[in-house]
Amino acid sequence: MKINYLLFGLILLISVSQSIAWDYPVTPKSDGSCRVPPSEIRASLQIPPDTLRAMSTEELIDVCLRHPYFGAIYFFDNVVFSLNGMIEGFNGLTELMNRDDAFGLLYKKFKLLGPENVKSDWGIRERGLFLFKENFVKMLMALFIRNNIFQARLRCST
Predict the structure, then answer these.
(1) How confident is the model at residue 74, as a pLDDT?
(2) Residue 36 is assigned to a structural domain of this protein
């Protein structure tokens, strides 16, 4: 019986220690952000391919929600246009949109980001960022649905 608990604990420890800890090398708050030319910022925010492949979908969602410039989707009048541009320009979102389990995990994240989960002691910045992430997840889920409907229509028309 003790061996079973030891094995379970060892497996749990191994699975927890295999999570990928990755963060963006350049953010608007980092000291190096002023020294990176604007033309190189996009390249500096890409996730290394080996790290990207090793990430679980949940980790990838969290990394995408921490993208330093994910607010750029509101730079244009058309949010779908902006979101598609962000997906094309960021390998993390491109990978996320191609993962089979992403929609279900985005929905799980969406349920955690509901307004009922906003803490009363949060300041305006924390509340705004929390609700902004909720909207970002909703937009990604809507894009999944739209793309799947479009692909289903293509299959039916051929």
Answers:
(1) 81
(2) no
